[in-house]
Amino acid sequence: MSDRYELFLTCPKGLEGLLAEEATALGLEETREHTSAIRGSADMETAYRLCLWSRLANRVLLVLKRFPMKDAEDLYNGVLHVDWHDHLEPDGSLAVEFSGHGSGIDNTHFGALKVKDAIVDKLRMPDGSRPSVDKLNPDLRVHLRLDRGEAILSLDLSGHSLHQRGYRLQQGAAPLKENLAAAILIRAGWPRIAAEGGALADPMCGVGTFLVEAAMIAADIAPNLKRERWGFSAWLGHVPALWRKLHDEALERAAAGLAKPPLWIRGYEADPRLIQPGRNNVERAGLSEWIKIYQGEVATFEPRPDQNQKGLVICNPPYGERLGDEASLLYLYQNLGERLRQACLNWEAAVFTGAPDLGKRMGIRSHKQYAFWNGALPCKLLLIKVLPDQFVTGERRTAEQRQVEREHVEPEDTSPLVTPGKYEKYNKNGNPIKPAPVVVEQPRLSEGGQMFANRLQKNLKLLGKWVRREGIDCYRVYDADMPEYSLAIDLYQDWVHVQEYAAPKSIDPEKASARLFDALAAIPQALNVDKSRVIIKRRERQSGTRQYERQSAQGQFVEVNEGGVKLLVNLTDYLDTGLFLDHRAMRMRIQREAQGKRFLNLFSYTATASVHAAKGGARSTTSVDLSRTYLDWARRNLSLNGFSDKNRLEQGDVMAWLDACREEYDLIFIDPPTFSNSKRMEGVFDVQRDQVQLLDLAMARLAPGGVLYFSNNFRKFVLDENLAQRYAVEEITAQTIDPDFARNSKIHKAWKITAR
């Protein structure tokens, strides 16, 4: 066998240049880049060193042979003519990986089978013994790559992929592979920062991959030092003495690195379920003295290393894979930008993102961007110098304030890490000058965002007197007033509930996304609410009962006031909140007319109308709904107001319930869904088709002199003209639209129906 070998090193797409630099530094010669791989030449010692020390490679492949092939027979013969007795015992085990196609090989499984057959036939003994296949832990892992009619036959020296360092047995939902994390750290300049004694902080650390990879770089620990089984372990060409020498050297370097004073490396994670798995990973890596992980939200992130040293803030925020998620992430990025500006002045930052448009919303410029791939997802690494001249913020301070800051505060003094009470500047009387406080300015709104903010503030001002007069603390402040910003925005005390209407297919998705981000950036500023209290949902055309299905499971209820009653809303778990704001005027009408009456609420949802009827002095209320969840919610609403007695809750299909009912009611309210096909009901309910049957059944239960109110929000609904021949029918839609829905008069339709 030759003293020098051709080596192929594979890597994630986009890391080829970095891997070429790393491999060259480790001794690879004649290095050339390919897609997701590099190649070069090296001796055995360098091949071992690459296995042990490469932080970026997936595999180290040692090329045995290259040969031309035009069909499967060429493939078989080319592999057969290798002297496999130099590489594998006849009773050993092997695994074959095949990549590429062409030359009559269109199926990688078939290609791998031909390679395996050739090796087995070569090593088959007279007594019939032959190598076996072991896909998990073979003695020899063989790789054949077919590239434009040439077969490249290699041994895999690494065994399992080199990104599997062995410390990360527990991981979160979307972890970065270890070699990609190492590449991001290298691109972010961490080796330089670590050599200077800098700190590192990850405000969204997950299970700690960035932290461990960073500490291993800083402590000079070979990334695969703890790996026990390699692809070369049972290879007959393995040189154990040479390997032991390199491994011992790596052990000595790691011991020397860990003996140094540890750098300040900290991770913070909002999800409490990930804290212990992250700490376990750190412990398995042997880096508990270097790395600490704490629970903490991005909005309160503030690194406080010893001796005020600066360093690198690095993070991989979630990307948002479901519809609507990306919008919710805007505030996460804004919080990150705010914390960088406030708590990390003079640090460097690296934000790895699959949503670069969100990266632009942090209110701070990146001075460099690198393209990466996380699996099949294109990503960007944004490198940032956290300095005031990089901030993209509104001009909140006066010229005089800025002049005072320039005269009295050096950049390092504005850092929040300066010890309170210690000032370095003095006035002419010898008294210390206290630095002006660091002003964290909001990111500057785009032109469209500012226009949207102006509209919100205008609406808020117009509704202000009415809201205060009526004692309302939950109302609609915006409803697609400007077609480009297709949102419905409701205030629930100091919470904001935002529903994004899906843009028509004719709208460019990128433009729609940019406008949405502009609007979401404007909402907290225009309405003066904390970003953490803005709930965002996407509203699309719903089928069946989807709008009533659970979207989340946070179980967080907010108590709101309306017309003297208290009601519970849930802003997170369902598409709707438990309170239809557009029916407020109808509920207040019911409250005024309920005195002494028997009230029936059909399709009652959370029974808010029943609470109002009870508040108005109803003799009794009966609420009918098919959902046990909503009836439990209704029970809580009634109990909250002390109305547990004389208020029945009935679970059932409304049509069947009415058909079986023999009681009379003086006041009836019906607000049915447009369409329902619940498994718990017979057939399918369609409000347009079934309106006559529904109203006839309900009117049969109406006491003499009673009133039935019928409403629905189906835009195309037309009341059956035959109903007016049997009953006194009066459309009262205009009287049931409050000022906050005045722009959207088609939000619902309503009728008052009485017996003739």
Automatic annotation (TrEMBL):
InterPro entries: 23SrRNA_methyltr_KL, DNA_methylase_N6_adenine_CS, RlmKL-like_Mtase, RlmL_1st, SAM-dep_methyl-trfase, SAM-dependent_MTases_sf, THUMP_dom. This is Ribosomal RNA large subunit methyltransferase K/L. Keywords: Cytoplasm, Methyltransferase, RNA-binding, rRNA processing, S-adenosyl-L-methionine, Transferase. Belongs to the methyltransferase superfamily. RlmKL family. The keyword Metal-binding does not apply. The gene is rlmKL. It catalyses: guanosine(2069) in 23S rRNA + S-adenosyl-L-methionine = N(2)-methylguanosine(2069) in 23S rRNA + S-adenosyl-L-homocysteine + H(+); guanosine(2445) in 23S rRNA + S-adenosyl-L-methionine = N(2)-methylguanosine(2445) in 23S rRNA + S-adenosyl-L-homocysteine + H(+). Its EC number is 2.1.1.173, 2.1.1.264. The lineage of its organism: Bacteria, Pseudomonadati, Pseudomonadota, Gammaproteobacteria, Pseudomonadales. SMART domains: THUMP. Residues 46-157 form the THUMP domain. Residues 397-411 have a biased composition (Basic and acidic residues). It holds the Pfam family THUMP. SUPFAM superfamilies: S-adenosyl-L-methionine-dependent methyltransferases. It is found in: Cytoplasm. Transmembrane segments: none annotated. GO terms for molecular function: 23S rRNA (guanine(2445)-N(2))-methyltransferase activity. Specifically methylates the guanine in position 2445 (m2G2445) and the guanine in position 2069 (m7G2069) of 23S rRNA. It comes from the Bacteria. It comes from Pseudomonas folii. Residues 397-422 are annotated as: Disordered.
